[in-house]
């Protein structure tokens, strides 16, 4: 026996002298996907062990592989995240029927993925029938279901989920486009589920749900920690809040009554992540009693002006995450810098352009950024729409924001004159100073960054994996210099740039880690075939030709909007798509030649 | 973005209506028309709604003569024979710098660029227009500037869908709350809160126990297209 064991140990010992038993114990502790990727490349046996023990997979674009391939390698998967439409879809730039259908994946999951407990679809098209199949086949074991910015389904589909998925701890529907028939789905959930921890239908337009069902969920689910809902009158939640005893996060709601009526609302004691829709200056004080507990504040859909922001923020010394619009102003940022020393994530979105809808003080500029950089040293994520900018402010960020891993700056186009352009030196200083930077977005205007500045981006972003570049550079030369760097760049998005098809093709071939490219706004070639210089095996190239779309603008008038052409290119092991809509055209080198 | 559609429609010249004798321009009328119209045209500073046809470019040419220049302006058409190419370039330079000067304000860039850069009447990213752009003889700078500004006009900073939706709903709330807003106090006036349901532009459901009967609300149709 012992002899046999020794023999087995010898034959099955991996190159580094570790037995499989040991490896099998160690591997489950390796979680980082890049580490797992490295592990799987060592040898066949390690590849197999990785396949057996890997718990979670994220497929960044669903067309890069197939359900079949996933099953063949990771049949014991417990958690899957799939992304469909390009990120630009969140900005209404991608045709609704572009693709990203979950159906083939759901069918494979129903048949073969017996261990799957957690499913996250992001920017994909989901049908009621998909939800029915999922509920029927995996309903008993499914614990997490996230339909994140998805579309194509109705509340009928959710009925199946509510009825059959009794183990569901997380139901996430945020920003999905859902056809609402009734509120039955929430009732089914309320009646069948007692383990819900996270319920989210924030930023959906589901209003036929009943607050009584919410109350029932709160009473039945003792671990309910996070609830984000659509517009529901806050006063109707007077029964819900006391029942949700361990609630930590609440977003949504609405204020439609006289402000003083809201002072009677008592919030759960552990509430530390909050976002109240349509909250105005007169309702704001209801938050004051527990403002010092707040770790996360969502003011994106509140109705506060600059002064209100100052009054509220100064009461939140423990704030770690803030999301708001640029109505916060430079003054609000200065208060933030003084008061919120633990701030890790800050997102400042663009307010409305319409006259009088936002505060006059609602502009963010270099002044606010400099204060922020100096005051909030723990900042990891910063996304901001600015009205004005200087190189110095970017240098400040490079100097002080040493923990920054995600930086996104958009220069708004309302002001004609910007204090300090081009931003070449500031960008260089920021990239050199923020050594942990993994994600980077810079959206400027013609003249905002020269070709030299663009080459700096290439030169000084060794760890950046994702970039969005808008209106940067001056010519193809800048792009070509840029493409000599960015050694880690996997996903590149570009908009409004002046580069030619040829330069784009060369760039793709030069960026060593690139696996995904999206471009809108480029200099097309005469024949439209210069792009083919990037043709290569496993590289899919798709075009969304220029379109004219009738849309309603901010004041509700119908206008014809021109959508310039897009290029989308990505590595795929599954060959070209087979489900193109009319608006998307594949570029097939063989056909085009 | 909003202004683009209207100005585009104005670009199309209405040749037949304005002619002296109702004829489409033929070669016989060329010289006459040219001598009458030219000084007026060149004197005009505002060159909106003007199409310039580059000789031999294949776009907007109305005859086969290689040195013939045709100008469509404000519903009239002028044809000039035997114009040397340097003169044509000067004329185009004047026209495009006049347009660029008018478009100093970025907000109007959409209108100006769309109408005054006829060689770019379609998106630069469509293939056919690249021919004109790449023409070696045309002065590069003004065209390039207008092409960039055109690019900016066609690619305004995109709005996030979730926020767009919020702005629509906020506007609906304002309209329903205060149908006759005082122009001097455009901000939300909290003291004028009426009895409103939450999502005023959508049907009443359990989330909205509206004391106001539905007929009294004048909901705006949700205005976004997904």
TrEMBL record, chain A:
Domain COI1 F-box: 16-56
Pfam families: F-box_5, Transp_inhibit
Entry's Gene Ontology cellular component terms: SCF ubiquitin ligase complex
Occurrences of domain Transport inhibitor response (ranges): 76-121
GO biological process: SCF-dependent proteasomal ubiquitin-dependent protein catabolic process
Record's protein name: RNI-like superfamily protein
Source organism of this protein record: Theobroma cacao
TrEMBL record, chain B:
Coarse class of the protein's main subcellular location: nucleus
GO biological process: regulation of defense response; regulation of jasmonic acid mediated signaling pathway; response to wounding
Superkingdom of the organism of origin: Eukaryota
Region (Disordered): 1-20, 174-226
Domain Tify: 62-97
GO cellular component, one term: nucleus
Function: Repressor of jasmonate responses.
Protein name, as recorded: Protein TIFY
Taxonomic source organism: Theobroma cacao
